[in-house]
Amino acid sequence: MIQYDAIIIGSGQAGTPLSKYLAKKGLKTLLIEKRWVGGTCVNDGCTPTKTMVASAKTAWLINRSEEMGITTARTNVHMEAVIARQQEIVHKMRSGSEKGLKQTENLDLIYGEASFQGPKTVQIDLPDGTQQTVRAETIIINTGLEPHIPSISGLDQVAYLTNTSLLTLPTLPKQLLIVGSGYIGLEFGQMYQRFGSQVTLLERGPRILKKEDEDIAESLYSILKEEGVNIRLNTSLLSVEKSENGYMATVESEGQQSQIPFTHLLLASGRVPITKPLNLKTTGVHMDSKGYIPVDNSMQTNVPGIYALGDIKGGPAFTHVAYDDYRILTQVLFADQQLQGNHDILPYCMFTDPQLGRVGLNEQQAKEKGLNYKAVSLANTSVARAIETGDTRGMMKAIVDADTDLILGASMLGTEGGEVMSVVQMAMMGGLRWQQIAQSMLAHPTFSESLNNLFSQLED
Ligand SMILES: Cc1cc2nc3c(=O)[nH]c(=O)nc-3n(C[C@H](O)[C@H](O)[C@H](O)COP(=O)(O)OP(=O)(O)OC[C@H]3O[C@@H](n4cnc5c(N)ncnc54)[C@H](O)[C@@H]3O)c2cc1C
Ligand SMILES: NC(=O)c1ccc[n+]([C@@H]2O[C@H](COP(=O)([O-])OP(=O)(O)OC[C@H]3O[C@@H](n4cnc5c(N)ncnc54)[C@H](O)[C@@H]3O)[C@@H](O)[C@H]2O)c1
């Protein structure tokens, strides 16, 4: 049995940089990965989807080029080339990351599935069918999430897709049925509608984006409808079966059953923690009812020496949160500090087009918290940069504290909404009051310049 100082299970957005950091600090470190280095983000999350969103935007821009005074020949989408471009970028990032790990002194990378045999002992099931056992005083779990597969009658008869398998499908689905209208459903749904599929999104709730403000969700809903995405709200998928030309779905909406034909099915109804294979019962590490591993402010589980980072610990599931967990743990282990991620001003961005950049509180959260707030919004039809660049869809919205004038949060639904949101995030981090943004000189004509107009409405 090989003894290490630290073992990291899962090469995700926290585990990968952490393994290099620990090894550089002189700890004999082992990183165990069952699939691909880089985890979800690099391989079947952020990188491939945003690469394909860019291809889909190109198709969309070409299709409306006449509005900008340019005519082109008919648009042809070559799915094989779109997928090849995406895979090339993914492989480049993955192999760059793998090379960096392999070149790090004091660091071993072993491909295989890890499971605990005790609080300090881990077994690795290697790809050749053999096992290896390793030990360490410090063990970090960074195993992430996987797609939730809902129990739907007839699903075993359908070669359904997930966010992983759709990324290597070389053909364009004719009729793509998507279960779930969360980030994954919306990003893929719009992307494939733009590539030329007829997309139907099923959402069992009464609206898309239930965690976002209703006016923001409504604005994005209209944008997607306008592009031809068929969104069925209050609708649950009951069963699927083979039909003459593909498949048939039976759905229920407000007590009524109806049928939807489809050629491909994407399951995007949420993601679940990968904890089962870890055999945590041998460690005494607690899981919650959904299988997430709760941690304290120092990222430690209830068992001393076992830590959990990234999506597996529950809470917001984003790459930058996992990376922040890595930063926090390095402070805890080497600077003896108990830092806490500042999730009050948590930023995130959904990469539909237009993007939805979000930071801090939205109006419904401010209401739920009973805060004394003011909300202000600006349609992008009033944003000079949006008019000039030919895309006035969406809106800007901000929430401020009515007592302190500090900015509580923003929702930026618009072209480069993520970038404009980041400007507001910096203002929040710096403790600026809304008047300072309303009266500051911002470069003309940028999207961010319209923050002047957004916040100056509060002067009335
Ligand atoms: C389609 C999609 C798009 C996304 N887009 C964005 C985005 O634009 N922006 C954003 O911020 N976030 C995005 N996310 C979320 C983001 O990918 C995750 O939040 C992030 O990857 C979480 O990182 P992590 O470190 O927790 O784990 P992961 O990146 O999920 O890595 C976990 C790793 O652990 C490995 N593993 C699991 N069990 C074992 C085991 N027993 N033994 C060994 N290895 C194991 C897995 O194979 C995996 O490589 C997206 C997610 C998806 C699915
Ligand atoms: N741009 C980004 O940052 C980005 C992009 C993609 C994913 N992600 C991360 O991945 C996580 C998972 O995304 P997701 O979209 O899979 O999950 P989600 O939980 O965000 O959304 C799932 C949706 O499916 C609906 N649903 C669930 N079961 C259903 C059913 N049987 N029939 C109809 N609707 C059903 C839910 O009501 C919900 O609206 C996100 O929370 C996010 O953190 C981030």
Automatic annotation (TrEMBL):
Keywords: FAD, Flavoprotein, NAD, Nucleotide-binding, Oxidoreductase, Pyruvate. Disulfide bonds join C41-C46. The keyword DNA-binding does not apply. InterPro entries: FAD/NAD-bd_sf (IPR036188), FAD/NAD-binding_dom (IPR023753), FAD/NAD-linked_Rdtase_dimer_sf (IPR016156), Pyr_nuc-diS_OxRdtase (IPR001100), Pyr_nucl-diS_OxRdtase_dimer (IPR004099). The active site is at H444. Residues 347-453 form the Pyridine nucleotide-disulphide oxidoreductase dimerisation domain. Residues 4-324 form the FAD/NAD(P)-binding domain. Belongs to the class-I pyridine nucleotide-disulfide oxidoreductase family. This is Pyruvate/2-oxoglutarate dehydrogenase complex dihydrolipoamide dehydrogenase (E3) component. NAD(+) binds at G180, S181, G182, Y183, I184, G185, L186, E187, E203, G270. GO terms for molecular function: flavin adenine dinucleotide binding; NAD(P)H dehydrogenase (quinone) activity. FAD binds at K50, D311. Binds 1 FAD per subunit. Transmembrane segments: none annotated. SUPFAM superfamilies: FAD/NAD(P)-binding domain, FAD/NAD-linked reductases, dimerisation (C-terminal) domain. Its cofactor is FAD.
